[in-house]
């Protein structure tokens, strides 16, 4: 009978410990939920607004939806909420890059279509910018362009 009583006492002690642990985790979860509820309006407000980017001195205006269209891109990472992003005094987020080809990259994010420049030097610059922004769709274009260039060179040599 004493052994049975000790088993019940151990079980009761164990249940008290589990209950305390659950209460602690519940409080922790409530605190996290409260923080998310406080932050959600900020995120929602941010998503609905236009975003101004200052790319090398040129201002581009777009939306969060456009900037996060390619989830693996640097732009999506910048505006994912994982990093604290603060605009400058003009309300712009500064990107220290040459703006010459950024419009093509932004239009790709908007439409899903890649429009290539006619000049080879511009194509090379565009592909380098796309690589910087980590936009994978342009890598396929780069590979196709390299193959076309090699085929062209081969035809000249014949």
Strand order of the largest sheet: 2-1-3
Work out the oligomeric state of the chains in this entry. Answer: single chain
Give the terminus-to-terminus CA distance. 101 Å
**Count of helices?**
6
What is the overall shape?
elongated
SS strand fraction: 5-15%
SSE order in H/E notation?
Answer: HEEHHEHHH
Number of strands: 3
Descriptive keywords:
158 residues, mainly alpha, three-stranded mixed sheet, 6 helices
Write the layout of secondary structure elements.
Elements: H1 2-48, E1 50-55, E2 58-63, H2 64-67, H3 74-78, E3 92-95, H4 102-111, H5 120-132, H6 137-157
Helix pairs in contact: 5-6
Task: Write structural notes for this entry.
By secondary structure, this protein is mainly alpha-helical. Helices cover 63% and strands 10% of the residues. It is built from 6 helices and 3 strands. The chain has helices spanning 2-48, 64-67, 74-78, 102-111, 120-132, 137-157, and strands at residues 50-55, 58-63, 92-95. The longest helix is centred in the N-terminal third of the chain and has 47 residues, at 2-48. The radius of gyration is 27 Å and the shape is elongated. The chain starts with a helix and ends with a helix.
């Amino acid at each position: 009978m004493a052994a049975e009583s000790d088993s019940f006492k151990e079980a009761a002690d164990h249940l008290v410990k589990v209950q305390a642990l659950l209460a602690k985790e519940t409080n922790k979860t409530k605190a996290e939920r409260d923080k998310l509820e406080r932050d959600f309006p900020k995120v929602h407000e941010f998503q609905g607004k236009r975003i101004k980017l200052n790319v090398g001195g040129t201002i581009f205006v777009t939306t969060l939806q456009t900037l996060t269209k390619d989830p693996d891109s640097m732009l999506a990472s910048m505006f994912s909420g994982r990093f604290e992003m603060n605009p400058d005094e003009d309300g712009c987020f500064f990107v220290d890059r040459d703006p010459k080809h950024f419009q093509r990259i932004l239009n790709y994010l908007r439409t899903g279509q890649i429009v290539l420049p006619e000049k080879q030097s511009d194509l090379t610059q565009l592909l380098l910018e796309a690589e910087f922004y980590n936009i994978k769709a342009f890598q396929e274009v780069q590979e196709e362009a390299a193959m076309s260039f090699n085929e062209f060179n081969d035809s000249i040599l014949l």
